[in-house]
Amino acid sequence: MCRAVARQGTMRAMTSKRYIALLRGVNVGRAKRIAMADLRKLIEDLGYAEVRSVLNSGNVVFSGPARPQAEVAAGIEEALVLKLGVAARTLVLDGAELAAIMAANPLLDQAPDHARLVTFILSDPLSMPDTLRAIETLCHQDWQPGALALGERAVYVWCPDGILDSAAAAALGKLLGDATTSRNWTTLLKLHALSGAAAA
Question: What domains can you pick out in the chain, each with its CATH number?
Fold first, then answer.
């Protein structure tokens, strides 16, 4: 009996994944106000564990059974509407995807201020070939003293004068619309650290 229980516990551990949910446009101005305690409870009520939020802008790391990230995102979006009355696009990555995005950033050497190094994470790059070609065109423009670079799953933007004054970030945001959500590098570092370590 004890061996069977141990095997079941091992199987659950093997099939568990660490997820990162990024809600778009949450707690920006007066729209889509969500308390992070309510968001954590909502995700726990969906059956996930080790739920941690980062800052107040809809960043959550949690653990759960291995399933497609789009399915996890859809469940969170539905619960947000039903339980909190908030409609917010949600992008979900697993720990390996976030690690790959972090490792691929070609702008780190020229971006000493991580709060001004912004990553636009793409929701589904394979479904947007025309948009990717348009991003490549933007990458070849001169954005000095800033910079813009395209990776496999994200677009990286160095905004030395701040994101609000970045022509590159503005052009990219206009092009991508709801197909992305963005976070600065400081926030991604915190999420990466949490995604790589389960809560004690």
Answer: 2-94 (3.30.70.1280), 99-191 (3.30.70.1260)
